[in-house]
Automatic annotation (TrEMBL):
<keyword id="KW-0472">Membrane</keyword>
<feature type="transmembrane region" description="Helical">
    <location>
        <begin position="6"/>
        <end position="28"/>
    </location>
</feature>
<dbReference type="GO" id="GO:0020037">
    <property type="term" value="F:heme binding"/>
</dbReference>
<keyword id="KW-0812">Transmembrane</keyword>
<dbReference type="GO" id="GO:0005506">
    <property type="term" value="F:iron ion binding"/>
</dbReference>
<dbReference type="InterPro" id="IPR036396">
    <property type="entry name" value="Cyt_P450_sf"/>
</dbReference>
<dbReference type="GO" id="GO:0004497">
    <property type="term" value="F:monooxygenase activity"/>
</dbReference>
<dbReference type="InterPro" id="IPR001128">
    <property type="entry name" value="Cyt_P450"/>
</dbReference>
<protein>
    <submittedName>
        <fullName>Geraniol 8-hydroxylase</fullName>
    </submittedName>
</protein>
<dbReference type="GO" id="GO:0016705">
    <property type="term" value="F:oxidoreductase activity, acting on paired donors, with incorporation or reduction of molecular oxygen"/>
</dbReference>
<keyword id="KW-1133">Transmembrane helix</keyword>
<dbReference type="Pfam" id="PF00067">
    <property type="entry name" value="p450"/>
</dbReference>
<dbReference type="InterPro" id="IPR002401">
    <property type="entry name" value="Cyt_P450_E_grp-I"/>
</dbReference>
């Protein structure tokens, strides 16, 4: 009986040992394989397990990156969660990256929140270099950022600034949400340039304010863990994707409404122009009937002449 217990316990121990040692050996093999295939990266601080260098950024990342650049050089690598990031912090290195190697380094990492509704697949900001990107860039360069367009909208920009100043003066003695009214002013400037109409009201308490209809982008003020740990994307721990989706649905709905209204107006104008052209064509036509009407003949004579001309010709 004791021999049977000893044999059973030995088998159980061997099973538990194999249960733990096999996954451990597999993990070591995968780690060694990935390390051997890992591309050479720029120097940088040693990352911590799982979180990487996230804690080294602190609440003021620009100062933290400047401090790290002094220790590791103008080009350094950081591990932000599961995302490897290369930081360029000197003019010479930036020139090398943006001018000489701009094509190879032009691909952009897209935050998870900007992938909603397929926005990243059509936005010129996030598209990789391609024919679609070139076409959209040409459209924006020609119709949005051309010198003549910017010069033509100079008066509009001044008008929006005057409206902002007037709004602030009208609230003398009361608190002013500076961030809110500035955001609304910029949004109105963009919408007035693109749609020839204001999109929102500067009144913070209005139902049409950007703060209520577009959430004023407050969801962008903090980091999103899903951007650093892709496994968290389906969970959406901060609710960022849900908030951005609601914001984009409202914004796209407003744009669709304005575009549909403008298309309807364009069609009505085209129909009116076609009718006017037809009327002008009828007025310009000078035929045998016009000559007879100009002679002010009586109707029986008019009918007779037209009938004879029809038979003859």
């Amino acid at each position: 009986m004791p021999m049977e217990l000893s044999s059973s316990s030995s088998s159980c121990f061997l099973f538990l040992f194999l249960l733990f040692i096999i996954p451990f050996l597999y993990f070591l093999k995968v780690a060694a394989s990935s390390k051997s295939k890992r591309p050479r990266l720029a120097p940088g601080p040693a990352p911590l397990p799982i979180v990487g260098n996230l804690f080294e950024l602190g609440d003021k990342p620009h100062r933290s990156l400047a401090r790290l650049a002094k220790a590791h050089g103008p080009v350094m690598s950081l591990k932000l969660g599961r995302i490897t990031t290369t930081v360029v912090s000197s003019p010479d290195a930036a020139k090398e990256a943006l001018q000489k190697k701009g094509r190879a380094l032009s691909g952009r990492w897209v935050p998870d929140a900007d992938r909603v509704l397929g926005h990243d697949r059509v936005a010129v900001v996030w598209l990789p270099p391609s024919q679609q990107w070139n076409n959209l860039r040409a459209v924006m360069r020609t119709y949005s950022f051309a010198a003549r367009v910017l010069d033509a909208s100079q008066g509009l920009r001044r008008q929006k600034v005057r409206e902002l100043i007037s709004h602030v003066r009208g609230r003398t003695g009361r608190a002013v949400d500076v961030g809110g009214v500035v955001f609304d002013t910029v949004l109105n400037l963009i919408s007035a340039t693109a749609f020839s109409s204001d999109l929102v009201s500067l009144d913070y308490h209005s139902d049409h304010s950007a703060s209520r209809r577009l959430s004023r982008g407050s969801w962008r003020r903090s980091a999103n863990l899903a951007d650093f740990f892709p496994l968290l994307v389906p969970i959406d721990p901060h609710g960022r994707r849900r908030k951005v989706t609601k914001c984009f649905v409202r914004l796209f709905g407003m744009i669709d409404e304005i575009a549909d209204r403008r298309l309807k107006l364009i069609k009505e104008q085209q129909q009116q122009q076609e009718q006017e052209q037809e009327q002008e064509q009828e007025q310009k036509s000078h035929d045998f009937l016009d000559e007879l009407l100009h002679l002010q003949l009586d109707r029986p004579t008019l009918r007779s002449l037209l009938a004879v001309s029809r038979v003859c010709f």
